[in-house]
Amino acid sequence: MKRFNVPVNLFALLAVVAVTTTASAQRPVTGMPVPELSTIDDAVLAYMDANDVKGAIVGISRHGKPVYLRGFGWSDEALTVPMRENRIQRVASITKTFTAAVIMDLAAKGQLDISEFAFDLDQPDGGILQLAPFPALYDDRMADIKVHHLLHHYAGWDRALAQDPTQHELDCQEDMNLPELPVPEELMRWIMGRPLQHDPGSTYAYSNVGYLALGLIAEQVSGMSLLDYVRLHLLTEDLWFPLEDIQMGFTFEAELDLREPHYNSSAMQVNVFDPTGPLVPAPYGSWNHELKDGYGRIVTGAVPLLHHAHRFVLNGLDRGKRIDGAHDLEAHGGAQPGNNSQLWQLSNGTDFVVLVNEYDGVTTHAQAIAVEVYNALALFNFPYLTEAVDAYWLEPGYGGEAHGSWDLPYGNLGQLNGTDMRTKIKAKPGSSPWTGVVNGANVLITKAAGGAAIFGK
User: Fold this and answer.
1) DSSP character string of 344-378
2) Which of 143, 223, 361, 424 is deepest in the core (most CB within 10 A)?
């Protein structure tokens, strides 16, 4: 059996026990069927059946073109609404891959040097972030942290030896006597008043703190928010892209985008916004999601993630760099209560993503499903699969669903029938304006400059 070359640090993932490939008759499947990849449908459904996974999305692209995009199972808590293949959801630490790409893009443009000191602490050569440590600088070694230390998790924080300070927003609020939970700058100042666990540059230790700092550096250097930079400079340079398909998420369920699924977790935890009040479901208030800009806040879907993986190295020594020619197999995952995700880029021009809307801190189902997808892809000869499937819409006058690509012209539209309350209509700029009628009070319209050639959900 053919296998792709796998780096040593991914062999543990591939040891996941395989499940049978009998497709589920109960779980709905959305998106355009791809007969050549039906084995992936079977493998995903079999895993979900065997492990009672409620909802998942799987997307695959070939040389930057999405060729497989399917939703499995349910998106709501009551298990009545199918998981649409184009839903967006929290991706947790996959956010870090966007932050790394922003930093390396700024470096490539000469706006920063990754060998610069990260913090301006009166070093002879100065530093970037101008934040006053609270209550004062605790550890002089912090002056030695450079941007590349943050980028590669060598800055000196180690959550295996000391609790992750990004998860102590209530302590930060109390110590700084803040009227509400801290914003990222305040949390960073508070962390700068705490010790490091290693000399900068000496020890690898995966760190949320490092990417909190990188997010702040990116915003200070670029003069714009991290999200604006990603939208304007990374994902939209050479393709049209629905901006609402990548966003910064929010904490409580009532604040979420209508296309986000319900995040499933059985854990009940302290509400950080009201710590003396009743417990809340862990995905909705056990952390301040608005605090995680650089390291865990992004909400997006399969297609933006596939475009991102096609353009930027996800992990390893070249993380964040633009892809130019061959590269190694790399992967990055993310997990928070209620969601987990995997984004893989193979060395043969194939990328894939798995999004799952549940996590209780035990089994990362997205990781296990990613192994199933990887093994299925190893058997497939991709040159024969060319049709893009990144767009979904309701066909005017047809009354049914249609799939295709944002890059294909739609033609002249007469009217678009309203669908359900979770629908967003997106317009791709085209050669002529659209002046038709949209029926349905629950349709949310997103305008695009220059008229519309494609309408998609």
Assistant:
1) EE-TTSEEEEEEESB--SS--HHHHHHHHHHHHHT
2) 424
The closest alpha carbon to 2, from 350, 433, 436, 448, belongs to: 350
pLDDT per position as a tens digit, 102-114 = 999 999 999 999 9
Q: Output the CA–CA distances (angstroms, integers) from residue 231 to 75, 99, 228, 306, 433, in the order listed.
A: 26, 12, 5, 14, 24
Q: Give the angle 37-40-45 at the CA atoms, nearest 5°.
A: 140
Q: Which tokens is 178 given?
A: 């803040």
Q: Dump pLDDT digits (tens) for 343-382.
A: 999 988 899 999 999 999 999 999 999 999 999 988 776 6
The DSSP H or E segment spanning 62 is strand 55-62
| Structural domains for the chain | 8-89+301-383 (no CATH), 98-226 (3.40.710.10), 390-457 (no CATH)
Which two three-digit tokens encode residue 71? 């939703």
pTM recorded for the entire structure: 0.86
